[in-house]
Structures are given as C-alpha cells and as structure tokens.
Design brief:
The protein is of the alpha+beta class. It has three domains: about 110 residues, no CATH class; about 90 residues, Roll (Pdz3 Domain), CATH 2.30.42; about 220 residues, 2-enoyl-CoA Hydratase, Chain A, domain 1. Helices cover about 25% and strands about 25% of the residues. The protein contains 13 helices and 28 strands. The protein has a six-stranded mixed sheet, with helices on both faces. The chain has a four-stranded mixed sheet with strand order 1-24-25-6. Helix 1 packs parallel to helix 3, helix 7 packs parallel to helix 8 and helix 8 packs parallel to helix 11. The longest helix has 17 residues. The two termini are about 15 Å apart.
Length: about 500
C-alpha cells in the first residue's frame, strides 16, 4: 500500500472512579479518550495500530500502562518518535536477551520502527529532496570520503564524485572531522542530513582541491548508480551493478531492465550486485530483482513466505478491517498472497552471484539475498549487513506515516531470522569479510570489494594484492567493529526497510 489514509481513533473513555477519605480520584484511563489535542489523538493512534499490527504485539503493554500521551519532545514529530522508540523496546529476543529492535550504536532507540513526515514515501516513489550524496570514512579515522552521489542531484551538478576526500565541512577542518563516535560524527551527519545548505572542500584523486557551496534540491532517483562489464578471461565476463534503493516498480524496473539486458547481450557469466549502501524499499522491487538474477531453473518455485503476528493470522484485526477489504485467512503464511514465487525475468541466466554488502545493507536488500540462497551459488563480500528480516506497510496518521515491523519473511528453505545481520565468510554466508573501499569509484576493478569478486571468477579463491595502509598517530586504522559502528552512525537517518503493499483499501 503506497497511501493509507487513517482517521483518528475516537474511542470512548471508560471512566473509573474510587473514593478514599471522601476524595474522588480518577485513575489513568484504560482506553483512549475521544477528547484531547490533535497530537494526543495521534499518539493514541500510534499505540493502537502498533498494538494490533506489530509483529511482536503480545509483548506490548496495555494502554493504561504505556500512557502514550505522556511522551514529549522538542516538536510533535520528536514526541512521536520518542513514543515509537519506547514501544520498540518491549519485545525481547530470547537468543540475545535484548530487544529485537536493540540498536547497538544507540541503545533505547528503535532499530526498525520509526515515524516519518512523508519523506520516505516520496524517496521510494523516486523523488528525493536533499544534497544527493553521503559521506563515509575509509580505513582510517581521518579519511572522510564521498561514498556515493545520485545522478542529477545537487552534488552531481557540482561535480562531486564517489571517492573524493572531504577536507572541510562548513568551516570545520583537520581533527574536527576525525571519526570519534560522538561530537564530530554528529556534526557531519547534521551537516549533510539535517540542513538545507552546506559548504565543503573536496580533494580529487589527483591531489587537486575545490570548494563547493550548495543547497538541497529535488531530483528523480536513479537507483542504478553504475554498471560495468569486466572481461575476466577464459570466457568469463563479470557484470557489475550498483543498486542503491528499492524504489517503486515504475521507477526501478526500466533501469534494471536496461542493465540486465546489456549484461545478457554482452554474455555475462558471473554477476556482482553492489548493495553496500542499499537500505531497502519496496518488496515488489526486491522480487523483481530476484527474478532477474535467478536461474531459469527457479521459475515457478517458491521464493519466500510471509509471516504475521498470531492475532492477524487468526483474523483479529478490528482496526485494519475498517480500512481494508480483508478476506478470512489472508494473513496466514499459506495464503497465496504470502507465498511469493519466482517468475524468471530477462535473458540473463547465471548460476552464481556475488553481493557486496556493509552495515548499510538492509531489509529488502537482505530479502533479495535470502531469496536466492537456496536457488544458486550466492557469495557475500564486505562487512556484516544490517540485520532486518522484518518489514512493514506504512500507516498514515494525519500528516505522519508510521512504520513498525508487521511481518517476517523466510526463504524457500524456511530460513530467515538474520537479526544480527549476514556476515560474509561465515558458515551460513560464504564469501570474504573486508572493509568498504571508499577511495575508488564504483566499478573500478582495483576497488577492493569488487576486486575480490573478479579474482574469484579468475582463480576460485578470494584474494587481492596485499593492501598497504599507512599507520601513524594521525592516521589510526579503524577496527572492523569501529567500521561497523561508524557505518550505522553515519547513515542512522537513512531509510532501512521493506514495504509491502498487497492489502486493498475499501472503496
């Protein structure tokens, strides 16, 4: 569902009074009151829709215990975000002893749930309104680089490219830009993600520098940032595609079709799908990418199954029923709508695919990977992915959109549950673990993570020439754990999710 318009829930108050020493005391209501401010009613709706649809809804408290109207913030959206964060901490993963939504860089904040002002739906619809770039650190604490640039964005217009080193942001230079997991990182994130203008000094690979000043702007998202075909010799050709966002079908399919058609025409034998910064998006687009990659032998077979909470499976959904035409059993995993099957797309027929992943690789990206594991040789290159085997459908409440996990997916082998992420080179996810190489442009055969795939095609072994990293007091190398934490901090405001849209609104 791309737009779901919900009315505030106007439920009657259950008034309960007691008498003590001839003085009446009115306890907290056990149900929402129809009285209150607009914000109060929105807070009630956030709680009630979560209570009904949340994947782990049985772990949530009662209305009286939770007191949704008590949450506050610097503004309305902040207050609602605080409420959503609080709701996310009740369901405990028995394996880890921590909430399913535990977020290690920011304990107490939701890893999956959030509430938004509509920006996400616009972005996934194919329209963004920002600078069009994002930064990341290389292997050292002072190596701040541009990790990607969207074509047609303000950053692209200014000539900014992936791999350029950022030496100044809004007048801050030197150690003020070093990775510190605190003040510096917050400054950088706010500069490129929470303001409408920015000034930077950038250094090109040839050592020359230039200054830019730019404002945010609206542009059409091309989720395919780069493609390339590399001849690996011996009759082997490696196709490479950077897919950066699972935008809606009408935006993503033409770009994917063009890329995969070219791969087929050029006789690609091995495929590298670069999802290192892809936080997810529409499930339908993930299905289509899976269909393009899958071998013809997978056609017609089960891709994945979708699982909802026990109440929804037993047709207990009074709020959703007021909005949707829901058939009995529609939320059961055996219902046809929850049994996605492969429908081979395109003419590329391969038996092996490499996925480049990092801590920014989430949700619909991980769904695509998990879909294909039982059907072909899948190998992962990079660092452990985000870990989001759950998805949601957006719930519109007034001018806001609520996103909370409402379903989990499992592939045809019944495997899912990758809450800790997919680790390259592990028993479950064969491949190789190494740092993201942000110093090189996408598709550069010498870029470390792409080079691993090329050399594997050539030799059957994951190896690249030994990397030489300068190590001084001013260029301390990041550890793998620091790199993972840095990744989650630098893109903590990036969308991470998979959006389902098969429910039908009542007319």
């Amino acid at each position: 569902m791309k737009k779901i318009f919900y009315l505030f829930l106007l439920l009657s108050t259950v008034g309960i009074t007691s008498c003590k020493k001839d003085k009446k005391i009115t306890p907290d209501p056990i149900e929402p009151s129809k009285n209150g401010s607009v914000l109060d009613l929105i807070k009630d709706s956030v709680f009630l829709y979560t209570k009904e649809t949340y994947y782990w809804n049985k772990d949530l408290p009662t209305y009286a215990a939770f007191k949704p109207r008590a949450f506050s913030g610097t503004n309305d959206l902040d207050a609602l975000s605080t409420e959503v964060d609080a709701l996310s901490q009740y369901a405990i993963n028995t394996v880890t002893g921590k909430p399913y939504e535990y977020y290690s860089p920011s304990p107490g904040y939701a890893k999956y749930s959030f509430i938004d002002d509509g920006s996400v739906s616009g972005e996934l619809g194919g329209v963004k309104g920002d600078f069009g770039f994002a930064p990341a650190y290389g292997t050292t604490v002072s190596d701040l680089r541009v990790k990607y640039v969207y074509p047609g964005s303000p950053a692209d217009v200014k000539g900014i490219k992936r791999g350029y080193k950022i030496t100044a942001i809004n007048g801050r230079t030197g150690s003020g830009l070093n990775y510190d997991a605190g003040t510096n990182v917050n400054f950088i994130v706010n500069a490129y993600n929470s303001s409408s203008s920015i000034t930077m000094t950038l250094e090109k690979p040839d050592g020359s520098s230039f200054n830019v000043s730019m404002s945010t702007g609206t542009y059409i998202v091309n989720p395919v940032l780069a493609t390339k075909v590399v001849d690996a010799g011996g009759g082997k050709k490696v196709g490479y595609i950077v897919f950066n966002s699972f935008t809606e079908d009408s935006n993503a399919r033409p770009k994917l079709d063009a890329a995969f058609s070219d791969f087929a025409t050029q006789g690609v034998t091995d495929l590298v799908v670069d999802l290192r910064y892809n936080g997810g998006g529409y499930v339908s687009t993930a299905e289509y990418l899976s269909d393009l990659i899958a071998p013809s032998s997978a056609n017609g077979s089960l891709m994945y199954s979708t699982y909802y909470n026990d109440d929804l499976q037993h047709d207990i959904h009074p709020l959703l029923s007021k909005i949707y035409n829901i058939s009995p059993g529609e939320f059961l995993p055996t219902d046809p709508s929850n049994q996605a099957k492969f429908a081979k797309a395109g003419n590329l027929n391969i038996s092996r695919v490499f996925f480049i992943v990092t801590g920014s690789t989430a949700s619909a990206s991980e769904l695509t990977i998990n879909n294909l594991i039982p059907k072909m040789d899948v190998k992962l290159i990079g660092t452990t992915s985000y870990g989001k085997p759950v998805g949601f459908f957006a719930i519109d409440i007034n001018k806001y959109q609520l996103y909370v996990p409402q379903f989990e997916t499992k592939n045809s082998a019944g495997n899912g549950g990758y809450y800790d992420g997919m680790k390259p080179g592990s028993a479950k996810y064969p491949g190789v673990e190494d740092f993201d190489d942000v110093s090189k442009e996408f598709g550069d055969p010498t870029e470390d993570l792409f080079a691993y795939a090329i050399n594997y095609v050539k030799t059957g072994v994951f190896s690249i020439p030994t990397k030489k990293i300068q190590s001084t007091s001013n260029l301390r190398t990041l550890s793998m754990d620091e790199a993972k934490k840095m990744t989650t901090q630098m893109d903590r405001k990036q969308f991470k999710g998979m959006i389902y849209d098969h429910l039908k609104l009542k007319k």
